[in-house]
């Protein structure tokens, strides 16, 4: 019994040592060509990266509560709260096409949010270090409809539960350790407030700076273009900073974002939290690949 107890005590330290061992930090061995991105996501949005053929990935994303508001200390700076959680599976059909689906708790106004997407490689010029991909997504809420007709969650039709998102992903390397990406696209909601618009175009910008070994700094900002006065008074654009850590078969992303919801159907049209008011939160992403 004493031996078993000692082994249990040693497990965290053994795992920690393995995490930092040379064998698990395979950047120089496997990624000598320094690809544009090592993960299919930045913080909220997609990158030009696709999963390899017959590779299955389990992806878990978590967002906590506000960190720096006046009452944040009561929730241990947001760690007591969970603004949103997503669990999904993604798969590489070929080296140029991947699909995925997942389910989010939902951060509001919609809850019980299901999503599915397809992403494909459009253009890849390794000499110019330029790659273009395209993605299309669908979001569907299964939450109970409100009984108040003026509510955004009053669904008189099945189609009112659906939101669509499409974008073009364009990434390049201006210098060896820096990757930049532009993501023009649009979101279309079948149901929106009367003062709002169903169609919202946007331009996303992503920067990834490789710091050392398997660690990179990631910054992400999405700007909605045709904002109405209603949107300007009620919503803000999502911005996030993150640290990306890669080991063999795993991707860890630790981030700070002002958006509460996960997925373009949430963070693009419904972000209200402001960095200036301390309404940003800690989040993390864990992605585990299962090779063919």
Topology:
Blueprint lengths: L1 H18 L7 H4 L25 E11 L15 E11 L4 E8 L8 E13 L4 E12 L20 E14 L2 E12 L9 E14 L2 E10 L4 H6 L4 E9 L2 E8 L6 H4 L13 E10 L2
In short:
This protein is mostly beta strands.
Number of helical stretches of at least 4 residues: 4
Kindly report how far apart the N and C termini lie.
Answer: 40 Å
The CATH superfamily is known as monomeric porin ompg
The major sheet is characterized as:
12 strands, antiparallel, barrel
Helix content: 10-25%
Structural class: mainly beta
Number of domains: 1
* General shape: globular
**How many whole angstroms does the radius of gyration measure?**
20 Å
Tell how many strands the DSSP assignment holds.
Answer: 12
In CATH, the topology is named Porin
Using brief descriptors, characterize the structure shown.
292 residues, mainly beta, Porin, twelve-stranded antiparallel β-barrel, 12 strands, 11% helix
Give an overview in words.
The protein has four helices and twelve strands. The chain is mostly beta strands. The chain has a single domain (26-286), classed as Porin (Beta Barrel), CATH 2.40.160. The chain has a twelve-stranded antiparallel β-barrel with strand order 1-2-3-4-5-6-7-8-9-10-11-12. The longest helix has 18 residues, at 2-19.
